[in-house]
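Wed. Picked up where I left off yesterday with UPF0260 protein PH603_00605. The coffee machine is broken again, so keeping this brief.
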Amino acid sequence: MAFWHDKPLAALSQAEWESLCDGCGKCCLHKLEDEDTGEIHYTDVACRMLDLTTARCKRYPERKRYVANCTVLTAKNIESFAWMPSTCAYRLLAEGKDLPDWHPLVTGDPASTLAAGQTVAGRAVDERVAGDFEDHIVSWPE
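Structure written out below (tokens, as returned):
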């Protein structure tokens, strides 16, 4: 049986925790919250640290040093991140659901997220050139 079936999120090792990330880059897209409804809207505007070709953070280990408001997911705070994409392994497991068929831990292939069309690679815009984020609201991250 796979470790994500056997252990609660809080019991995962750091390596197991990190391996849950499918590398989609969706969490690195800017989101806008509707002030009236609280609804979260995804944009195709990516953090400046995101490599738009690979959908991976350019400075992952030290990302907080470069982007002070970068969100670091942990087993302790994952429950408060309902804004994470519906395909996010952390969110899925926190909700008692299983990983999608295309997840690298399921397929054994680190490129399966890209092959399934589930990454922001080639679809996102760098925040430094995006202009008004409201002009970049998209529905595809879900």
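Quick read: Residues 14-136 form one domain.
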